# Entry
Amino acid sequence: MFEQIDEYLRKAKKIVIVTGAGISQESGIPTFRGKDGWWRNYDAMKLATIDAFYENPKLVWEWYNERRQNIFAAEPNLGHKAIVELENYLEVVVLTQNIDGLHQRAGSSKVLELHGSIVKIKCTACDYMDEITSNFLEFPPVCKCGNILRPDVVWFGESLPQDVWKEAIAHANSCDVMVIAGTSLAVSPANTLPIYAKQNNSILVEINPDQTIMSSDMDISIRSTSAKTLSELVSIFKK
Ligand code: OAD
# Structure
């Protein structure tokens, strides 16, 4: 299997890496689905929709606050770092569904955040927006304009930032290899990115310890963790 990837990677000029919660799992950040995932014990519709937010902003904020503490204490793992190293050998674009900022903290130079960022906070009414890593003292936090603040993330039912999404499609459409690491591909529209890549005859490589709903569409599926496998992909270039 690695011989096949070896050949594809050496020929490739541009690689797009689509990531999800699984890539940060080895940094101690829980995934959403699966046995230890958030959605096993929590209802996504009560925590990650705009209706849920307006119904109980305190509850939603307390959940985001817990995640902010977890994420700010976490460090990029070997998977994030391997992606940075790939930049020494070819053009690398990261399209992430993660809001944790770990790709950027690892040093990746081109990261598109499809679902926003947990560091960024915006007002629900005025155009205030800022990156805030300090703790809020009460929930929900309130803007200077008097309205409540929210995390600048994409909730279920909300559109992706259109400029980011358009750019993501353009990259998916123009890569030679797309590596899909640590995502269940259960959420649309991010899960259509492999289809755009296929339109450019890209090679699809999935890295996931478990099968996903799109495994049968992959050219290569590697059933292992992203930290181990992405490090192995980098070592191909060092031979
Ligand atoms: P999921 O929790 O749906 O999927 C995580 C995937 O990572 C699963 O397929 C796991 O098998 C895999 N995985 C777990 N550990 C791994 C490891 N060490 N290495 C590689 N893979 C591993 O997370 P996402 O696909 O990111 O959206 O979920 C997509 C969206 O659904 C999220 O952005 C979030 C969520 O609800 C919103 O909240 C709007």
In short: The radius of gyration is 18 Å. Residues 4 and 196 are 22 Å apart (CA to CA). The first helix runs from residue 2 to 11.
